[in-house]
Design brief:
It is a single chain. This protein is an alpha+beta fold. Strands 1-2-3-6-4-5 form a 6-stranded mixed β-sheet, covered by helices on one side. Helix 3 links the parallel strand 4 and strand 5. About 5% of the residues have low confidence.
C-alpha cells in the first residue's frame, strides 16, 4: 500500500490540474422555451431542435417541402449567429411527423448539403411541437 500512495498522489494532483471541456450556453435573446439555441463544447456546437417556423414563430404553410426549407434556413441562421456555415455540420437528426414524407424531405435536404454529407438519422414521431411536419437537430464542428 505504501508503494501505491505516491502514485495515487501524483494521479490525484494531475487530475486536479486538468481542465474539463469549455462549455458555453448560447441562448438567443427573446427565444421562447427553457433551452439554449445552441451549446458549444470546445469546438463542437450542438443546435437545439429547429422547426420550419417563420420570423413570427408560426409554421410556414405548404407541408413538408416548405417546412423543410424553412427549418434548414433556420439552422443556417443559427449557425451563422455562432460563426459557422452549413459545411461545418457533421450530424443531423430529422424527426418526421410522418415517416412517409422522408423522400419529399430529402429532396429539399439535399440542396443544403450539395458537397458535404453530414451523418444523419431520421425517424417518425407521434407528434411534434406546433403540429410541425419535421424538426431538425444538428451538430457542427467549429474550426
Amino acid at each position: 500500500m505504501r508503494r501505491l500512495l505516491p502514485l495515487v498522489l501524483v494521479l490525484s494532483a494531475a487530475c486536479a490540474t486538468m481542465k474539463g471541456p469549455r462549455v458555453e450556453f448560447l441562448a438567443r435573446p427573446g427565444s421562447p422555451g427553457p433551452f439554449s439555441e445552441a451549446v458549444r463544447v470546445d469546438n463542437i456546437v450542438f443546435l437545439s431542435g429547429v422547426l420550419g417556423t417563420d420570423s413570427t414563430g408560426r409554421l410556414v404553410r405548404g407541408g413538408i417541402g416548405p417546412e423543410t426549407k424553412q427549418a434548414l434556413e433556420n439552422v443556417k441562421a443559427a449557425l451563422a449567429r455562432n460563426g459557422l456555415t452549413m459545411d461545418r455540420v457533421v450530424k443531423c437528426t430529422v424527426m418526421l411527423a410522418d415517416i412517409g414524407e422522408w423522400a419529399a424531405m430529402n429532396t429539399v435536404y439535399r440542396t443544403y448539403f450539395p458537397d458535404t454529407k453530414p451523418a444523419r438519422s431520421a425517424f417518425g414521431a407521434s407528434g411534434l411541437v406546433l403540429g410541425g411536419r419535421l424538426e431538425l437537430e444538428c451538430i457542427a464542428a467549429a474550426r
